[in-house]
Write a structure and sequence with these properties.
The complex is a heterodimer of chains A (about 240) and B (about 300). With about 240 residues, chain A is an alpha+beta fold. Chain A has 7 helices and 12 strands. Chain A folds into 2 domains: about 1-40; about 40-235, no CATH class. With about 300 residues, chain B is of the alpha+beta class. Helix content of chain B is about 25%, strand content about 30%. The two termini of chain B are about 40 Å apart. The model of chain B is unreliable at about 1-5 and about 10-25 (pLDDT under 50). Classes of the chains: A alpha+beta (about 240), B alpha+beta (about 300). Chain A: Pfam families: DUF1190.
Chain lengths: ~240, ~300
């Protein structure tokens, strides 16, 4: 004879299974349309540009929009850029030659160097070197739909910064450091691509979240270490 | 005596490089009396002079060296010898039949004036330029140095300088006088932190870079923008002595840059002791309150 307790336990177990099935079902119901529509909720496709001209190569019929994106990203740079207590710490991570064509026989115009700039509160931040835009925004722009750059979220449009390859490769030996090779990273120390990279990039959305990794002035090596880790993750 | 010198002594055949390039023979520079005297001796009484081959001790005649009356350029001032005697450097061209076949060579000789007259001209370097016929010598062409002279910055530079560069250098050395403010201004530049990757700054805002960190370069760029007008008269920028695999030295005011196919050199103004130990700085003119030095700039980029 089956006891009342055993019946109760069996009912409870079945209820749990049903609830679990419902949760799984609900998740599947939510994800299926995204998969069908080709939407990946965890990742984002972006492009990084070194400036307006670079953007115009990709959007030849939207030169003015490129300028608008660049201007807005430069404006966001003021609040999003990583901050350092000293210029030396900042430039240990970011100083590089951004325009090597301005160098003649070893002499480089000062304007060809990307150095750190002083902020209003006497800290230092890297110079603005370019911007990244989500690919759908660019696709829309190509089709003629161009939302105001200011209306784009910081995940859709944000500044990008050049970082020396030697820093990204794990510090450097003093006499092997070459300042001419640089890569783009986000303000949040997320690795993007080598300067001059022409293809779109796929990043986790969390990588595009503004300002989470480094709140307050950065200490020597912190930003570079994070960027290095994300570069290694991107390569693996 | 090795085969090379045998070839030199026996086979030079007195073949003069009759067509010494105009650049070597065309002289209109500041001519000091000693240089004029030596030049006349080389042209008009070469038999009275003796020469020493690199790393040899026996004086030989000009015919054994293969240098004729018209083979040599006008003698030029050089930093005094270690014993303080006035010294002149003379570049000559000739043909040499040796282990490289018949070859055009450029020789550099150091002449010291003693109380007894002109001592033997020490050939301090023999630089192979090109074969007279046939295959190339490779690049860079070989240079043979008399013992110890390879470390002499002035001789190294002089070996490869153009006539125009020599003329500008001699004029600078004989005429430059810094203002009193110049050395004060130099101190201000020295207080800045110079990253290892920066060897020089020019008044036009450009930087000479080498391998090494650029951390702190922004301060230099900022200061240059502020003070470009304040660089003293005659100063074209700042330069640091540099040798591979050692940190660059302290900045000095650059007066003239000399680019040769071998190294770059700068004539610089400084007030401190010259760093002879590192082999990157050589005193050219010492005055009570300043020094003019020759600085080697060994670039790594």
């Amino acid at each position: 004879m089956v006891s009342t307790q055993a019946v109760g336990a069996a009912l409870e177990a079945r209820t749990r299974r049903q609830k679990r099935s419902q949760v799984v079902g609900l998740v599947l119901m939510g994800v299926t349309p995204l998969v069908v529509l080709g939407i990946d909720p965890l990742h984002s496709e972006v492009r990084v540009f070194s400036g307006v001209v670079d953007c115009q190569h990709h959007l030849p019929n939207a030169a003015a929009y490129c300028a608008e994106l660049d201007s807005e990203a430069a404006s966001r740079h003021l609040s999003m850029a990583p901050r350092y207590s000293t210029r030396e710490q900042c430039e240990a991570d970011f100083a590089h030659v951004a325009a090597s064509h301005d160098c003649r026989k070893g002499w480089c115009a000062a304007a060809s160097l990307s150095v750190c700039e002083r902020t209003e509160d006497n800290q230092f931040r890297p110079a603005y070197n370019g911007f990244l835009v989500e690919q759908p925004t660019l696709d829309d722009a190509r089709r003629g739909s161009r939302p105001s750059a200011a209306s784009l979220s910081e995940q859709e449009l944000q500044p990008a910064y050049g970082m020396s390859q030697d820093v990204l490769h794990g510090g450097y030996y003093p006499y092997s450091y070459i300042p001419f090779h640089s890569h783009f990273v986000t303000a949040n120390a997320q690795y993007l691509a080598p300067r001059g990279h022409r293809e779109s990039l796929t990043l986790r959305r969390s990588q595009l979240a503004p300002g989470a990794a480094h709140a307050g002035p950065i200490q020597r090596g912190g930003f570079g270490a994070t960027a290095r880790q994300t570069m290694q993750a991107a390569a693996s | 005596m090795n085969g090379w010198y045998l070839g030199w002594l026996v086979l030079a055949l007195g073949l003069h490089w009759g067509a010494v390039p105009t650049a070597l023979a065309d002289e209109d520079q500041v001519q000091d009396p000693l240089a004029v005297e030596l030049h006349q001796a080389l042209r008009e009484a070469p038999a009275a002079l003796r020469w020493l081959m690199p790393n040899e001790h026996k004086p030989v005649s000009h015919t054994e060296v293969g240098i004729g009356p018209d083979s040599c350029a006008f003698p030029q001032w050089a930093p005094p010898s270690p014993s303080g005697q006035p010294r002149l450097l003379v570049r000559c061209g000739t043909l040499l039949l040796g282990e490289h076949g018949m070859t055009r060579v450029s020789t550099l000789a150091s002449w010291v004036r003693t109380e007894q007259g002109w001592g033997p001209g020490q050939l301090v370097s023999v630089r192979y330029l090109s074969r007279a016929f046939g295959r190339s010598l490779g690049s860079p062409p070989p240079i043979i140095w008399h013992n110890g002279w390879e470390a002499d910055l002035f001789a190294r530079a002089f070996n490869l300088m153009s006539v125009r560069q020599i003329r500008e250098l001699q004029m600078l050395l004989s005429s430059y006088e810094p203002t009193n403010e110049a050395l004060v201004a130099l101190d201000q530049w020295r207080t800045l932190s110079w990253p290892d990757g920066v060897l020089g700054l020019r008044a036009d805002g450009s930087l000479l870079l080498q391998r090494g960190s650029l951390a702190g370069v922004g301060d230099l760029v900022e200061r240059l923008a502020e003070q470009s007008a304040a660089l003293p008269a005659g100063v074209t920028g700042l330069i640091r002595p540099a040798a591979a695999k050692s940190p660059p030295g302290r900045p000095m005011f650059m007066l003239q840059m000399i680019e040769t196919e071998d190294l770059w050199y700068a004539v610089a103004l400084t007030d401190g002791p010259t760093d002879r130990a590192g082999g990157t700085v050589q005193l050219l003119r010492g005055e009570p309150h300043f020094n003019l030095v020759l600085v080697s700039v060994e670039r790594t980029l």
